[in-house]
């Protein structure tokens, strides 16, 4: 096969629905492969010809990042206003707006691109592997390196890496809901299907992106990347990720501002026309008001906050697969975590064999345990690749060295699944009689044996009480049998127990305590025995609210389980499906649920959670399903990530509250004055310059300190809260604007140039300095100190605001010099203003409406595109682009 020309081998095309109709041997022949798979040389040739098995790229794309900067409604308003100003002949307005645009887009692009480059570097460190046969041996390769013709082995919990024609199956069920929408798992078999079958009826194939719910299989890759069914859907969605709750809240807020801006500017424009003001002057002033009421640098502040958070987490070696996952982390209030590898070290070690009777030796019990292994004996002895952790730990001990694979003939096998929780094999030794060997969870294996003696039960309880993981081994004669079914798992005789240990992590208790202080309810979901889970929790200092077992979960209705899950702390002996059901019900009850796991049995739950979290030592299946991967085995990093997400949200809301209240007050003052006065209170260019200075000072907000109490619970977008804040503090700002108007008109008899200079200085000083009151619910400076950066930036903006009307540029900007007494009056007004705002703030936050949410937390119902895009992240290559288009390829 290897000497055939590549183009010649690709001359035929075979869609997956036709591949499903062919017998396995013909399928292999069409693909130029064999049961032993491809050679490494052939695989390399096909990879070069077809490209990587990928539907996404994690290379940072500067043009895409730049394009996203213009997606904000606020920036679109700025662009339209700049264009109209230029068209109407107001070059000054256009220049000022252009500067605002350059600053906003430049800062947003710089920070987001920098963050994506950091994410790209971290993403490249996490690989997703598949077990394949190449050169006749089992190897692990990156999923993006799979090619048509590769023979792959897949087991429980695996995400199917490509469209695959099955060669052999064992009790195989697949969750294909991501493709078909069908909630029940689909049964699979390697037998050909009838021609013309629909996608959901192709039982002889498994599809990229779907998940193995039980059993295992071997198959040959038919289509990869964009040629696979899932790949075509994923490519159709494009590279853009679905929006998070944070982004949706930001969008709702932007549209709120647009509505206010459009309504206010329309009224101002009509009023000025009725007063017979010049049309162009009225239009430019109205546009300036529209721009002035919006926080123009909001996109830059958000991207700066995200970039800052990403860099902070990157220093702690945390991989955030998507930038906005940081906010998802901060939003979390329930964490359900697996025990193995997250609370424990994840290094499972075999510590001993406990025979159930004197007739069974330690060596014989160990041999029986090795026989009840799903992988081929000769392969298992050479390599533990693709094995479950318990089997791998068993094969790696010195006691496995004398095991001779040639002595035993395996006649049949029933793979492990999470319903039966055991593996059974039918074996024959050196031509002797066959016998059945079963290995699995003690409760399930003992149920298949005769009555358990008190000594055996005491032995088992002792191990559970010590926190050990225990596997029971049982056997019986099976003379004359050549195959087995689950019904044959009966009348067994207990041989004994294999004991394993996975110690709790030294710092896990402190980390869990830290999460609890952040208002996160921590729950444990494990497939282990309840006593083992309770022992680990006890050692870590977790106070239990009760334990639910898998049997309890099965008998409870969804309503009953939702209530019980809220109270319980430990879910023991739960299957992957039960974990996923628990996660779903916790989310439906209003919580923002994170799930942390590292095993193949955690994949379903990771996909169901609002935020999936795993660790670098996890199985590829778990890392694939996670949104965030902790590259260090330190759960304290997770707590830091939660605080970072909340810090970003808190600082973003600071900008929103300060910008909307000050801008609304100033623009309301300008609108009122424009109707009352015989001249415009501030020229359009002066309004925009005022906003540019003010917003520039607030670019230091992402690095500001956040009060501790703001990190102790998740925060959510509350448009009603923002509206109330704006309508309280905006008029207070306007009140002092009107006082300034009276001072300038009736005390100083100001001409238009003086009036505008006086209000410009008062406006920039009050709205900038008030940052220090609004940024915290505490008393500013005394109980809540701002960051040095924010303090410096704010004072610099005030200095610039005072300097400009006094500088040589004053005439160009439309300002006239001011008398010295004005500045003494200004100082007094600023002091009174800050005191009044502080009093209003204390009253505002003391009200019940600001203490409790007005509505229950909404249930999060994410669209199908969210799950498709999230799973597509697994098939990502560091290349500039992924070709979407070639159909399934047949290789002869």
TrEMBL record:
The chain crosses the membrane at residues 70-89, 95-113, 255-275, 287-307, 725-751, 757-776, 788-806, 818-837. GO terms for cellular component: plasma membrane. It is a multi-pass membrane protein. It is an enzyme of class 7 (translocase). InterPro entries: ATPase_P-typ_cation-transptr_C (IPR006068), ATPase_P-typ_cation-transptr_N (IPR004014), ATPase_P-typ_cyto_dom_N (IPR023299), ATPase_P-typ_P_site (IPR018303), ATPase_P-typ_TM_dom_sf (IPR023298), ATPase_P-typ_transduc_dom_A_sf (IPR008250), ATPase_P-type_domA (IPR059000), HAD-like_sf (IPR036412). One of its GO terms (molecular function) is P-type magnesium transporter activity. Mediates magnesium influx to the cytosol. This is Magnesium-transporting ATPase, P-type 1. It comes from Arthrobacter bambusae.
